[in-house]
Design goal:
Length: 415
Amino acid sequence: MASARAGRTPRTGRAPPPRAARAVHPHSGRTDRPMKISRIETFLAPPRWMFVRVETDEGVVGWGEPVVEGWAEPVRAAVEVLSEYLLGQDPARIEDHWQVMTKGGFYRGGPVLSSAVAGLDQALWDIKGKRHGLPVHQLLGGPVREQIRAYAWVGGDEPHAVRDAVTAQVEAGFTAVKMNGCGRMTPVATRAEVRECLLRAETAREVLGDERDFGLDFHGRVSPANARRLLPLLADYAPMFVEEPVLSDYLQALPDLVNASNIPLALGERLFTRREFLAPLQAGVAILQPDISHAGGISELRRIAALAEVYGAQLAPHCPLGPVALAASLQVAFTTPNFLIQEQSIGIHYNQGAELLDYVVDPEPFRFHGGSLLRTDRPGLGVEVDEAAVRAADERGHAWRNPVWRHEDGAFAEW
């Protein structure tokens, strides 16, 4: 039986040469015979990503991106365990596999398992689309829009750099940016800390004018008390949203924060199931930000979007990750009526040593047109992974960890 981890065989520890993937014509006459999953491999790719390659006995290959930033190695192990179930199965039974992978164990949930499932789910949808010669958004009901508005990241940890960073993205054609609203912040902020946060917003608004947007990410660095204080003060600058106004540990604070100002609140990158999104929606959160590589993949993301629609909330998927995660997010966005805007990581400050476009054969699906990405009819997830580049990257690997911050007195501070 094929090994799940990087295609290695137990005896040699070396990956056998990959079998060339065959293009399968949608009317080849073979789509009535169940395929079988024959091989699953994982690859650690700098700067902090992981890819999974799922191959079938017909040579059709699907790609996914299962990773928790900073915890890639445990996710890799979880993919290997789940592969024990998937090898030999028909990849077309996506929903059944999702149910088994998420509910087939006595202990369920959590970011590691959910992210492992997410990447495998993406790969199965990629296989289905390629086998039928259709983009995934057609399999999900067809597109409701022709382009996806995206925003660019401009940092914000250092307030003096905001003006130049925002200006550069405007010149690049983006109509929206996002930045950190603060750096390290004490639980009860000083006046200086408050002023620095307001200065970031004021500077961004001056550069953007009234026609463009900015999102302000509190990144879980802001205590509930500080959030109640800051939100009314920020209202004059009309941010598109304030993201993670408090950590997801403090969801009970959300009703008060929703009522504190007229700024739309957004969160969700640290939530992993539709059930976890119910309380924020009931509290009045306006924008959900699930991550397609954390929250159960395409299958669960579309259900979260449908739940948000019931509450009149919008979808703005979290995605500071690689090309497969972004391609999968776009497939959902094209078919989601209540989609708002897409995060993407091209040029983000995390990308040290590699960039999103380094792992794709053709960058055209990720070419921006006035700050938007255009719909294509390329099959599957719509992106061709550069397999040689991914295999070479795995030889280097990575062990990315987020920084550990401390307050001036030495106590732990949220990053």
